[in-house]
């Protein structure tokens, strides 16, 4: 753009050109690269925001998958008489009902030796007069039941016959009373058991019986039931909803159109398409057991009452769900959706990798942020150059204005001189 024509103010004492106006017009042309960078930065910001939305929906879908896969059955143990036996079950326990009769509790051997005049004398007696077997199996405690009277009490470290010991005879002047140890004896579904302690963890697999009293009358009923930790139907519909929200957003962000206003902001982004392809492929392979083992019978997503409808929507079908009569049993053990035997990872784990520091989603966002950083650096460089250019143009046009002002002043002086000469000659 050529600079505007200098403007004559008509007065010898004023500027001949509009320096600020000319420089502003020239700088408007020079700033066009900045405007293009700002447009690119705005588009990049929209992309980062859109990728963040997609990341959030992808994370929600992964959470829903994990929740469904963890709808396992938690065991619940019950005892009909906790004054006889307490009952607990670990996650590995199987459901079942049992009848318990307790005829004897495990006790510890006990020996009390009297005749000591001091605590130190009692302990010295234990350390010097007792056999190595007694010292090994018993703990020694000294009591003072009345002033100046001390009793050495020996109690077995372990309950039952296995931990029993015998003091035997004691020297004259001392007396001993002993209580023999007993084993726990009980019947479980009519089968006799004998154990050295009252905590029984090897009678019913995955369960522990704590014997606290003797049976009287009817046997104690023990039971283990399995209850799912969450409503399966709710967990399944949550997966369908999360997938549909993700898929809907994906279609919006990648929509193709000749109309730029209707085109998705990530229309040309192949990363999102790659992610959705992996997800859809994973949903099409058989559901596996907790260790990646094959399930018996039907094992596609129809097992969960799900199906892919027209338009790619994941739909929960009530009738299909009702046909999965063994679903609860399957969920009790746990499932893995989209399990890949090569990587030993299911779909939720693969999505976790996508969202990790070096995953495809995070990498895509970081790439866009690096582009923004480069554009901002370029913008700063151009703006610094423009500042220098503006200063130069201002200086140049100011000098031109000063020159024009000087020429104008000279012209006025000459005119005045010529007018004076002409006036003189005319006289």
Any chance you could write out the topology, listing elements then pairs?
Blueprint: H1 19-30, H2 32-69, E1 73-79, E2 85-89, E3 96-104, E4 110-116, H3 119-129, H4 132-137, E5 138-146, E6 149-156, E7 175-179, E8 184-188, E9 191-195, E10 199-200, E11 207-211, E12 220-228, H5 232-253, H6 270-283, E13 306-308, E14 314-316, H7 318-323, H8 327-333, H9 347-355, H10 360-425
Antiparallel strand pairs: 1-12, 2-11, 3-8, 3-12, 4-6, 4-7, 5-6, 8-9, 10-11, 13-14
Helix pairs in contact: 1-10, 2-5, 2-9, 2-10
Give the domain tally: 3
Portion of residues in helices? Answer: 40-55%
Oligomer: single chain
> How much beta, percentage-wise?
15-25%
| Count of extended strands | 14
Q: What strand line-up does the widest sheet have?
A: 1-12-3-8-9
Enumerate how many helices there are, as a single number: 10
Unreliable segments of 5+ consecutive residues: 8-13
Largest sheet: 5 strands, antiparallel
Distance between the termini: 54 Å
Features:
single chain; 427 residues; alpha+beta; 3 domains; four-stranded antiparallel beta sheet; 14 strands; elongated
How would you sum up this structure, described in words?
This protein is 45% helix and 19% strand. With 427 residues, the chain is α+β, with helices and mostly antiparallel strands. The chain folds into three domains: 33-71 and 230-355; 73-105 and 184-228, no CATH class; 110-179. The strands form four sheets. It has a five-stranded antiparallel β-sheet with strand order 1-12-3-8-9. A four-stranded antiparallel β-sheet has the order 5-6-4-7. Strands 2-11-10 form a three-stranded antiparallel β-sheet, with no helix packed on it. Strand 8 and strand 9 form a beta hairpin. Helix 1 (19-30) runs antiparallel to helix 10 (360-425) and helix 2 runs antiparallel to helix 10 (360-425). The longest helix is centred in the last third of the chain and has 66 residues, at 360-425. The chain is elongated. Residues 8-13 have low confidence and may be disordered.
